[in-house]
């Protein structure tokens, strides 16, 4: 029976306005932690992209002038120079790209493996599940750094591709376990059976019914792997198991250490790369917290906690007898408060001014 | 006189009993001696479905009534092809069904569709209503292009009374109410243009106030598309309202069957009597109590199922030794009714007044236990 | 008991995988490893070359299966061969020297960090929305700082400038190792700063996970029931919530054991501490393959063994597991 009326497809202006606001509302609804993390990371990604072009000097250029060796920060060299007269700032700007690039590739490779293994194990079940789970668990229990050290130790050149592969080789089991658990839970949901009823094939069910429901989990897993990759690659480089001819944050630290930067008081050489690693790591962790909290409402504030009489009461606590009124918090307090758990589910007060 | 003399055991399953549903249309599906066993962890075997047989006719509704754990959902899954039979056969339009490969399964799905109970989990939260309907239309009706799909989708939405169609098609499941979601489930099943619709407790998880509306919708769809409908529920009152024939299941077996009205007005099997007595019915409040009939015990802790005994005997007020040692087969009470009970003469004496020309029943069965 | 046996079987499989990886890696690596070694250490005797060739699978010393069996045999007998850098010292002797240092320092520091972190986590979960929540972003940052970075800064501040702690090493240069007071006190003194850095970097992690587990646990009904009974808050938190939260925390501890080892390696490099980690890195940089392999195996087995111990403790603590495994 054909439809008698045809939809014109024109939405009234009010609808369109609402739709536009809805599309960007997701940014506002992110927990504050995730926002901070995302901004931090965005900053570093920007540096990774434009850093090398911004660098005032060639990071490898060793200035033969002895008076320029190990200089404190100055106008000419904003972050000072190394033992060999190299500009620290340039090294830093180039190094961020290398480190992030490596970590990102590891993240992609390891996450792809984790998704394939996790979803297969969860969906296929039975023998597949047992075998794949055993594999993941074995790799989880083997200590990572010694194995990485040994694997890289045997390689004559420790190039980028080799490092990526080695790191990814040990980085996938975590994500695979988590994804497998989620897939197992989803597999028994009615809509999966319903899509079988419709006559969908296994492939289609996995790709279009199950996986879209796991996006946030896959994202969190990806971020986790990137975090691990950064930490591991920096640690390996520090030990000396990296391509020491390229500039990454880890190799900078290696050279700083081997040239006794700290003992000689050249903090400007040693502190910035480590600090940047810490900041990148913090950004990633915060972002992950945010993604986690979006998925697990429990980890958000015990919804509805209020402070009465100097104590914090949760929803499951006995009803407090209200003694005195609440004082309005100052702006700084409110900002700090936004980091805490309760802020997530409290009713937002009227905010004047433009939205972020 | 033993029970068999009053009621004859039904030999051939569904065939020997006349079904009121047969009047509505041709035979669509036959379930013949369905059996399903599940193997549990420690080697135990759970017989979820035992020797279940019935027919579905186009344009008719067969109600399958039972409590949780009675096996009714398993029957639905067996008929839908979601579970494999341990033994027994299913015939569709006269041909035995053999789901050997994917193509056979796809074709079967074009004829037989299952609607799920839970409107909140049977729709994928990440997809729109449009997606949910497009898939079966693409797969079963072979329509690909937008020009072909849109009118079909709009038609489906109108059939389940979700209009304006364009507005609803763009929505996500979490934006719909339970009733609306269940309508989408109906539409999804209809998109495959089936001849048999298996509805597994379609209204149980909906608000009571809209259940009637939904059942009326189902009825409307049944009539419009001449569907053979299997209506599975735990609520015997709605089964009476909606079905032509009712089958009562307990512990995996059919314990009574017959025309909906007759069966609920004068239930023969003690379990059916319990169901009817428990159903809220303003016309009938207290009638069972007033008649002084015995009611079944409250749900006793389920003892491990013993084969070779009537499964209802722990709760049955009429149980005797024979009930504990022999599993009663379905026995014909009239041309369209049957029940599986050794104590029918005691449980439903009024049904046997006219049989065998008024033979005296003294000395039969003894005093009520 | 059945559970423990199953875990044992699992660890056996993991150990076998580690052994096999160890066996295959040198054979898969490009280049001729033996020639590299020969050029670096010309003073080795021919028997050492042969042993190396056998280990690296060069020169066809028998079928692969044959080599594999010999390899396993050697491992079981703790015969790791002779070392290359400190020839002719045996690898197992070197290991015996260094392993105790690592275990004492790292083991103690890890346990202390775990206890303190868990305690702080309980405090954080004590009240919903306590002061620790404010500190959360700061703790996150602390966790993200690379260990060695923090360690080096602390060395700079506390050892170089303030001279409170020694710069590194396991003990003062002039002391003779032995069971004398001078040596022991020196060893302890030298272990303070490394232990301190290890503890600081690890505490944050334990605290965060314990806090999260506490949150989930305090949301359970039995905690609510305890509160409704009128039990004092301290009793509810410690006796009900914390006691149950400890279990997943323990599992987390088991999972993290691998990372503990990683931290140990880096720490020993930074502090030049004479432990297994330092030995491994030196072996790698000097391409001392026999030593590398042996250390890897020892570390892996130690981690597996520690995991097993945690499993046993878990079974002892969790009454449900006890019932299940009985």
What does this structure look like?
The complex is a heterotrimer of chains A (356), B (369) and C (326). Chain A has 356 residues and is mainly α. Helices cover 62% and strands 2% of the residues of chain A. Chain A has one domain (29-59, 79-298): MetI-like (MetI-like fold, Orthogonal Bundle), CATH 1.10.3720. Chain A is elongated, with a radius of gyration of 26 Å. The two termini of chain A are 49 Å apart. Mean pLDDT of chain A is 74; it is low at 1-9, 297-307, 310-330 and 336-356. Chain B is α/β, with parallel strands linked by helices and 369 residues long. Chain B has helices spanning 3-6, 72-80, 102-109, 129-140, 146-159, 165-169, 178-190, 208-225, 236-242, 260-265, 270-278, 287-291, 321-325, 344-347; strands spanning 8-9, 27-39, 45-57, 61-65, 87-92, 95-96, 112-115, 196-200, 228-233, 245-250, 253-259, 331-332, 338-339. The two termini of chain B are 18 Å apart. Chain C is an all-alpha fold and 326 residues long. Chain C folds into two domains: 33-77, no CATH class; 92-325, MetI-like fold. Chain C has 13 helices and no strands. Chain C is globular, with a radius of gyration of 24 Å. Chains in contact: A-B, A-C.
Features:
heterotrimer, A: about 350 residues, mainly alpha, MetI-like fold, two-stranded antiparallel sheet, 2 strands, about 60% helix, elongated, disordered N terminus, disordered C terminus, B: about 375 residues, Rossmann fold, 2 domains, four-stranded antiparallel β-sheet, 13 strands, globular
Nutshell version of this structure?
The complex is a heterotrimer of chains A (356), B (369) and C (326). Chain A has helices at 13-29, 32-54, 88-124, 126-141, 144-154, 160-187, 190-198, 202-210, 215-239, 249-258, 267-295, 331-337, and strands spanning 306-308, 311-313. Chain A has 356 residues and is mostly helical.
Total helices of chain A: the number is 12
Overall mean pLDDT of chain C stands at: 76
The CATH architecture assignment of the largest domain in chain C turns out to be Orthogonal Bundle
- Give the total of domains of chain C: 2
* Unreliable parts of chain C: none
Would you list the SSEs of chain C in sequence order as H and E?
A: HHHHHHHHHHHHH
Proportion in helices of chain A:
55-70%
How far is it from the N-terminal to the C-terminal residue of chain A, by CA?
A: 49 Å
Topology (SSEs and partners):
The complex is a heterotrimer of chains A (356), B (369) and C (326).
Chain A: H1 13-29, H2 32-54, H3 88-124, H4 126-141, H5 144-154, H6 160-187, H7 190-198, H8 202-210, H9 215-239, H10 249-258, H11 267-295, E1 306-308, E2 311-313, H12 331-337
Antiparallel strand pairs in A: 1-2
Helix pairs in contact in A: 2-3, 2-11, 3-4, 3-6, 3-9, 3-10, 3-11, 4-6, 5-6, 6-9, 7-8, 9-10, 9-11, 10-11
Chain B: H1 3-6, E1 8-9, E2 27-39, E3 45-57, E4 61-65, H2 72-80, E5 87-92, E6 95-96, H3 102-109, E7 112-115, H4 129-140, H5 146-159, H6 165-169, H7 178-190, E8 196-200, H8 208-225, E9 228-233, H9 236-242, E10 245-250, E11 253-259, H10 260-265, H11 270-278, H12 287-291, H13 321-325, E12 331-332, E13 338-339, H14 344-347
Parallel strand pairs in B: 4-9, 4-10, 7-8, 8-9
Antiparallel strand pairs in B: 1-12, 2-3, 2-5, 5-6, 10-11, 11-13, 12-13
Helix pairs in contact in B: 4-5, 4-7
Chain C: H1 2-28, H2 33-40, H3 46-56, H4 64-76, H5 91-126, H6 131-144, H7 147-161, H8 181-218, H9 221-228, H10 233-271, H11 276-285, H12 289-317, H13 319-325
Helix pairs in contact in C: 1-12, 5-8, 5-10, 6-8, 7-8, 7-10, 8-10, 9-10, 10-11, 10-12, 11-12, 12-13
């Amino acid at each position: 029976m054909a439809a008698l009326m045809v939809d014109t497809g024109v939405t009234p202006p009010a609808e369109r306005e609402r739709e536009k606001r809805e599309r960007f509302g997701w940014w506002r609804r992110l927990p504050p932690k995730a926002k901070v993390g995302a901004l931090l990371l965005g900053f570093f990604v920007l540096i990774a992209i434009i850093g090398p072009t911004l660098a005032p000097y060639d990071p490898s250029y060793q200035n033969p002038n002895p008076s320029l060796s190990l200089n404190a920060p100055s106008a000419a060299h904003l972050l000072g120079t190394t033992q060999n007269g190299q500009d620290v700032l340039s090294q830093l700007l180039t190094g961020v790209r290398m480190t992030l690039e490596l970590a990102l590739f590891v993240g992609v490779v390891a996450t792809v493996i984790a998704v394939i293994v996790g979803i297969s194990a969860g969906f296929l079940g039975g023998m597949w599940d047992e075998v794949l789970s055993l594999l993941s668990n074995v790799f989880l229990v083997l200590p990572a750094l010694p194995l990485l050290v040994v694997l890289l130790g045997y390689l004559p050149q420790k190039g980028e591709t080799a490092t990526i592969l080695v790191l990814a080789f040990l980085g996938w089991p975590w994500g695979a376990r988590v994804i497998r658990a989620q897939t197992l839970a989803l597999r028994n949901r009615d809509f999966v059976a319903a899509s079988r009823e419709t006559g969908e094939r296994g492939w289609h069910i996995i790709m279009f019914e199950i996986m879209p429901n796991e996006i946030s989990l896959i994202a969190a897993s990806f971020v986790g792997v990137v975090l691990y990759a950064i930490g591991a690659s920096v640690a390996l480089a520090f030990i000396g198991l990296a391509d020491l001819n390229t500039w990454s944050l880890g190799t900078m630290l290696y050279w700083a250490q081997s040239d006794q930067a700290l003992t000689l008081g050249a903090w400007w050489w040693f502190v910035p790369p480590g600090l940047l690693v810490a900041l990148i790591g913090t950004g990633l962790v915060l972002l992950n917290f945010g993604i986690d909290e979006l998925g697990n409402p429990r980890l958000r504030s015990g919804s509805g906690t209020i402070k009465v009489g100097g104590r914090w009461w949760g929803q499951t606590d006995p009803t407090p007898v209200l003694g005195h009124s609440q004082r309005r918090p100052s702006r700084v307090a409110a900002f700090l408060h936004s980091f805490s758990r309760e802020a997530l589910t409290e009713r937002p007060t009227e905010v004047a001014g433009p939205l972020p | 006189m033993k029970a068999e003399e009053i009621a004859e055991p039904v030999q051939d399953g569904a065939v020997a009993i006349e079904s009121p549903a047969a009047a509505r249309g041709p035979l669509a599906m036959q379930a013949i001696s369905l059996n399903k066993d599940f193997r549990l962890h420690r080697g135990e075997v759970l017989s979820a479905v035992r020797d279940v047989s019935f027919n579905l006719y186009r344009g008719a509704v067969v109600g399958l009534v039972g409590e949780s754990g009675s096996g009714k959902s398993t029957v639905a899954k067996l008929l839908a092809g979601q579970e494999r039979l341990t033994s027994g056969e299913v015939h569709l339009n006269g041909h035995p069904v053999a789901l050997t490969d994917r193509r056979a399964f796809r074709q079967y799905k074009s004829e037989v569709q299952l609607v799920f109970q839970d409107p909140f989990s049977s729709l994928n939260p990440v997809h729109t209503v449009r997606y949910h309907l497009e898939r079966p239309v693409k797969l079963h009706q072979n329509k690909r292009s937008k020009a072909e799909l849109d009118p079909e989708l709009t038609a489906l939405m109108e059939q389940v009374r979700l209009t304006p169609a364009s507005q609803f098609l763009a929505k996500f499941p979490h934006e719909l109410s339970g009733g609306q979601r269940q309508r989408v489930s109906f539409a999804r099943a209809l998109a495959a243009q089936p001849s048999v619709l298996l509805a597994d407790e379609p209204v149980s998880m909906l608000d009571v106030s809209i259940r009637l509306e939904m059942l009326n919708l189902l009825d409307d769809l049944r009539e419009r598309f001449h569907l053979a409908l299997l209506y599975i529920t735990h609520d015997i009152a709605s089964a009476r309202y909606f079905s032509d024939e009712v089958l009562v299941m307990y512990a995996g077996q059919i314990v009574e069957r017959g025309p909906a009205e007759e069966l609920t007005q004068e239930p023969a099997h003690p379990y059916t009597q319990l169901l009817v007595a428990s159903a809220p019915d303003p016309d009938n409040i207290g009638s069972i109590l007033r008649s002084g009939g015995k009611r079944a015990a409250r749900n006793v802790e389920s003892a491990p199922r013993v084969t070779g005994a009537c499964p209802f005997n722990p709760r049955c007020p009429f149980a005797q030794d024979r009930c504990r040692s022999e599993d009663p087969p379905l026995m014909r009470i009239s041309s369209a009714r049957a029940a599986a009970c050794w104590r029918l003469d005691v449980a439903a004496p009024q049904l046997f007044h006219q049989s065998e020309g008024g033979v005296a029943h003294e000395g039969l069965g003894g005093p009520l236990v | 008991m059945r559970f423990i046996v199953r875990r044992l079987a699992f660890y056996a499989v993991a150990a076998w995988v580690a052994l096999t990886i160890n066996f295959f890696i040198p054979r898969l690596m490009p280049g001729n490893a033996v020639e590299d070694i020969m050029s670096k250490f010309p003073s080795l005797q021919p028997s050492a070359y042969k042993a190396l060739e056998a280990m690296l699978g060069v020169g066809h010393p028998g079928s692969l299966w044959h080599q594999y069996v010999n390899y396993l045999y050697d491992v079981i007998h703790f015969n790791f061969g002779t070392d290359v850098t400190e020839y002719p010292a045996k690898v197992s002797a070197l290991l015996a020297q260094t392993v105790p240092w690592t275990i004492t320092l790292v083991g103690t520091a890890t346990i202390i960090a775990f206890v303190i972190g868990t305690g702080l986590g309980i405090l954080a979960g004590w009240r919903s929305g306590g002061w620790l929540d404010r500190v959360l972003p700061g703790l996150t940052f602390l966790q993200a700082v690379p260990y060695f970075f923090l360690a080096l800064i602390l060395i700079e501040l506390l050892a170089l400038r303030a001279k409170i702690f020694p710069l590194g090493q396991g003990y003062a240069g002039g002391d003779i190792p032995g069971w004398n007071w001078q040596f022991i006190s020196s060893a302890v003194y030298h272990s303070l700063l490394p232990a301190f850095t290890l503890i600081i970097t690890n505490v944050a992690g334990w605290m965060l996970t314990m806090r999260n587990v506490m949150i989930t646990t305090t949301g359970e009904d039995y905690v609510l029931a305890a509160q409704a009974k009128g039990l004092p808050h301290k009793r509810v938190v410690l006796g009900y919530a914390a006691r149950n939260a400890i279990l997943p925390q323990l599992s987390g501890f088991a999972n993290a054991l691998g990372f503990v080892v990683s931290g140990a390696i880096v720490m020993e490099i930074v502090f030049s501490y004479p432990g297994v980690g330092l030995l491994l890195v030196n072996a790698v940089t000097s391409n001392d393959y026999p030593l590398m392999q042996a250390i890897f195996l020892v570390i892996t087995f130690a981690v597996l063994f520690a995991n097993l111990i945690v499993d046993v403790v878990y079974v002892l603590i969790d009454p449900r597991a006890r019932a299940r495994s009985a």
